[in-house]
Amino acid sequence: MSASPPDYPSARDLMDALRFLPEEGQIWLGEQRMLLMPLAASSFFRNELVTTLGMERAKGLFMRLGYHSGLMDAELGRSLRGDDEALEESYLAGPQLHALQGHVQAVPIHLEMDLDNGWFYSEFVWEGSFEVDVWRPRGPQAEPVCWTLLGYACAYASHLLGREVQFREVSCRGCGDPQCRIVGKLAREWPDHEAFAEHFREEPLIDELYELQARIATLEGDLARTRGQEDWAPIGSTPAFQEMLAMLDSAAPSEVPVLLLGETGTGKEILARRLHDQSQRAVGPFIAVNCAAIPPELIESELFGVEKGAYTGAVQSRMGRFERADGGTLFLDELAELSPRAQAALLRVLQEQQIERVGAQAVQDVDVRIVAATHTDLLRRVEEGSFRQDLFYRLNAFTLSVPPLRERREDIAALAEHFLSRFEHHYQRRTLGFSDQARSALGQYRWPGNIRELKNSVERGVILTADHKRITEKALFGDYRVPTLEREKGQGLDASGMLTASPDGTPGEASPQERVRALIEAGMTLEEVERAMLEAAQAGSDGNITAAARRLGMTRAAYAYRLKKYRLPT
Ligand SMILES: Nc1ncnc2c1ncn2[C@@H]1O[C@H](COP(=O)(O)OP(=O)(O)OP(=O)(O)O)[C@@H](O)[C@H]1O
């Protein structure tokens, strides 16, 4: 593939990716949050860094600054301009994005790309470099000054082409040359490529710091593993969560049964484990049972064990979970699902510390501490008569409510980072972390499935993201439109699929499934829903097809195809 000099494709697609959201105080370019700031501020900052760090270290810092933004823009270029077929167009998106961001106008002089045969040559003239303007007051310099721009070019090309490319600024107006000109080649074509690549290595001090942090993390991991506590350290610094942890810890040394109330996936099991680990019983077993997962007819034999011949199929005697938890803690999750008979038997254990295997003639002593959990309103179950009152009061001695994730939103970022590092380790991945948009979506989502759902989303994101790429909102949530607190505030979904204010203006509580059910009940067909969504997205994007497609999580081409299919105006 070669062109000399190539023409830029239209920059419309790149401009469409730029969104100004003044009400929210944000500017976005694709998935990255951007900043608009005066050149004079950047100039001031540069002067200060050169004075404090010296020229060479400041240069390295600015080259790396450019390098990082080049890296992110390469992802955007590829996602907007596509795959290998359109490689030249994707490559040219780099200088076009650079121009769009007000850094420089890059005039292409020459481009030759034949990567299969290991050949790449690219040359640009830079007009209106912001860095030359920043340096102008200092007068002509001894060396080229477009550091950030150069770092950007190196990263953009390398990341996009999947080969290490290095650019050199062969002439620069900042040192009195008539124009700024850069030449890019595959790194190995430059004799000094190794020394040059050092510019992009982080400061030795920072390297050492990272290394130290990595060693501490490994040691902590080893420690947790030897104590059998891997995964069991609850993360959360919101006051509500910390208060609850403090209460949990104060209950740990006593023998009192603990009842944990909270929605599914809020971390009740992790808390039960913590209680166990902090108690005198930490050396004994921790056994967890999900009462809802065991068929009612088997629950008693599961919990209390069974004697050989007690019923057909009981071919040998078996220990129950209570016996296995002897000397330790038994965690009964979904307690409300226990059958009346199992409730009666559980009450006896709590009162007498004795169990009776199914089919046994005698009782036996057990020493077990019970931690129970439920997401249902147990008191209501008592009132309805489906849960024993005496058992309820026995278990209700020390009750803790575990807050749902939407009430501890400040913890989302820390939890997401925690799961990210665990899954990167597990899948042997090295992503560049979450994109700004992905991070913001994580913070806004309602999380009906709480921490378990957050964990699953991050796992999905890591699996779908290649090394050295950012985890996008789509990788986390798929094409499914994220129900956020913002979008739901005062909104419902009417039969035409449009978002509307609910009559009383209160936040809509309907889940996606409920909303879909409402549409079906309103008699809408799939085609009608699709058509209504296309129209709504189009109307909500002022007719901008790329923006409308993005709102529906589709490519522009797929969206345009559907418009045509329904004969909708484009
Ligand atoms: N505070 C936390 N810090 C780190 N990980 C957590 C935290 N809370 C929960 N998790 C993780 O989230 C997942 C769900 O937690 P857990 O199984 O304890 O929830 P649960 O409330 O017991 O759910 P259910 O009621 O559905 O059984 C687990 O994988 C757990 O490791």
From TrEMBL:
<keyword id="KW-0067">ATP-binding</keyword>
<dbReference type="Pfam" id="PF06505">
    <property type="entry name" value="XylR_N"/>
</dbReference>
<keyword id="KW-0805">Transcription regulation</keyword>
<dbReference type="InterPro" id="IPR002197">
    <property type="entry name" value="HTH_Fis"/>
</dbReference>
<dbReference type="InterPro" id="IPR025943">
    <property type="entry name" value="Sigma_54_int_dom_ATP-bd_2"/>
</dbReference>
<dbReference type="Pfam" id="PF02830">
    <property type="entry name" value="V4R"/>
</dbReference>
<dbReference type="InterPro" id="IPR002078">
    <property type="entry name" value="Sigma_54_int"/>
</dbReference>
<dbReference type="InterPro" id="IPR003593">
    <property type="entry name" value="AAA+_ATPase"/>
</dbReference>
<feature type="domain" description="Sigma-54 factor interaction">
    <location>
        <begin position="234"/>
        <end position="463"/>
    </location>
</feature>
<dbReference type="InterPro" id="IPR004096">
    <property type="entry name" value="V4R"/>
</dbReference>
<keyword id="KW-0804">Transcription</keyword>
<protein>
    <submittedName>
        <fullName>Regulatory protein, Fis family</fullName>
    </submittedName>
</protein>
<keyword id="KW-0547">Nucleotide-binding</keyword>
<dbReference type="Pfam" id="PF02954">
    <property type="entry name" value="HTH_8"/>
</dbReference>
<dbReference type="InterPro" id="IPR058031">
    <property type="entry name" value="AAA_lid_NorR"/>
</dbReference>
<dbReference type="InterPro" id="IPR009057">
    <property type="entry name" value="Homeodomain-like_sf"/>
</dbReference>
<keyword id="KW-0238">DNA-binding</keyword>
<dbReference type="GO" id="GO:0005524">
    <property type="term" value="F:ATP binding"/>
</dbReference>
<dbReference type="InterPro" id="IPR027417">
    <property type="entry name" value="P-loop_NTPase"/>
</dbReference>
<dbReference type="InterPro" id="IPR010523">
    <property type="entry name" value="XylR_N"/>
</dbReference>
<dbReference type="InterPro" id="IPR025662">
    <property type="entry name" value="Sigma_54_int_dom_ATP-bd_1"/>
</dbReference>
<dbReference type="InterPro" id="IPR024096">
    <property type="entry name" value="NO_sig/Golgi_transp_ligand-bd"/>
</dbReference>
<dbReference type="InterPro" id="IPR025944">
    <property type="entry name" value="Sigma_54_int_dom_CS"/>
</dbReference>
<dbReference type="GO" id="GO:0043565">
    <property type="term" value="F:sequence-specific DNA binding"/>
</dbReference>
<dbReference type="Pfam" id="PF25601">
    <property type="entry name" value="AAA_lid_14"/>
</dbReference>
<dbReference type="GO" id="GO:0006355">
    <property type="term" value="P:regulation of DNA-templated transcription"/>
</dbReference>
<dbReference type="Pfam" id="PF00158">
    <property type="entry name" value="Sigma54_activat"/>
</dbReference>
